[in-house]
Protein 1
Amino acid sequence: YRRLHARDTRLSEFNRTERRAMLGSYTKVLFVRDPFHRLIATFLQGMGISPSFSSFVQEVLDSGMHNGSAAWKPVVSLCRPCLIQYDYVVMFGFLRQELGHLLRRAGLPAGSLPPELTDSQVHWTYRWLSEQMFSELSAQQKKQLSHFYRWDLAAFPFSGSFLSD
């Protein structure tokens, strides 16, 4: 199909037969991360112009599902896990273990991973950051965020997410 090679063609623009042919020829990997951790990372990277995390979260909530940045939109709305049958779903926090498995499946040595991937340090850091940032939010913001990310929270096992309550 000629459209298959167009740069800006969205998957939704293909008919079912075209999608099946195209997606059937790829190994599909979806990387997922706790949505609250994604918000923290986006804020820390300066992608929001807000002076505080609470005001940044309010910007996210005000932007809604359709006007928001891909950096904080729910993964379910971006990657369509109900439409696409992914071969692998890799959870952030288990990257070293999961990427090692993927490398072996691809025929590459698992030792190809960079040594600085230390999941336990990442877990501890994000746990501490989450506690600090979550305490800045109002009860209403917490409730709205849980609702905003409800489909991600239902689709993926983000055990211990601050938004799961």
Protein 2
Amino acid sequence: QVEPPGSYQQDPWAMTDEEKLQAVPQIHKEGNELYRQGKVPEAAAKYYDAIACLKNLQMKEQPGSPDWIELDQKITPLLLNYCQCKLQCEEYYEVLDHCSSILNKYEDNVKAYFKRGKAHAAVWNVAEAQADFAKVLALDPSLRPVVSKELRSLEARLREKDAEDKIRFKGIFQ
């Protein structure tokens, strides 16, 4: 297969450390463009590749060292983008894992709380979703309209589920 000039991309495992560091912004940009085009699984794959490059570099650093922290701060926005893709692909448990790992390091990350709250709501972890949304409001009160919308949606889904359960279990104990 003949590819146009500049379109070939080396696999991350074959890159030098310097090439990985230089490739990440371009991979991130490509992920953003794919996301804007609605190609969510493809965007997730790009974000994953960029994260893999940075994680590979991070493994060579002493945890907690300035270089390690700098790499971790580059990983976090990519991981949040990846989580947004996974939310749209309805892979909620992956979102819960990644957002929790971000929050273990960065307790004030509003986006991680919001995405984790949405994932909790999707898998019927009502108390956890409400706690995450409350934390979002505590950290950034300007997000009240967005959080209120999510909470209303969760309440509506709960009422719907309760109604279905009443119908389903009606007369079961007679």
